[in-house]
Amino acid sequence: MHFSQGDGEVSFCGAIEMSGFLELKCEIIRGGMKEYLTPVGPTALHVNPIFEIGPVEPRFSEWLVFEGISVDESGKQHFLDASVAYKRAVLNAIEYLSRFGYSKEQVYLLLSCCPCEGRISGIVDAPNAVATLAIPTAIFDQDIKPKRLGHGPKLRRLPDVLR
What's the structural domain count of the chain? Predict the structure, then answer.
């Protein structure tokens, strides 16, 4: 089970694993597949599921959001590619947060396991897809919000790779 995992689990194996027990409750709705789901393939078994999730705790009230568009690091446009846009949002977050004394590797792993929220935020403005990555500010031991008048990030410590 995952104790914590950021949307996208960007490092593939960066979630915090734990042992546990799962109690799953379901309700069968007779004829529900026919009533509520639209087949998307050659048979009635090719459907998109609908499910309800419970509340996720803790709830955070302040977020810092990073945006990415479907243009890669070399400047190449990828037509409405939400994967490239999400990757750019993650890379933008890594670049920004590494200014606060964290190594890029630390931020990369943090984004895999912190309660960040990824979204496809725009898919209609061809040729660009837009993705956003929202990170709760309360998970940090310092204020990571941008400041005006040159009061930007302050290094709290040296990154591990510089020690």
Answer: 1
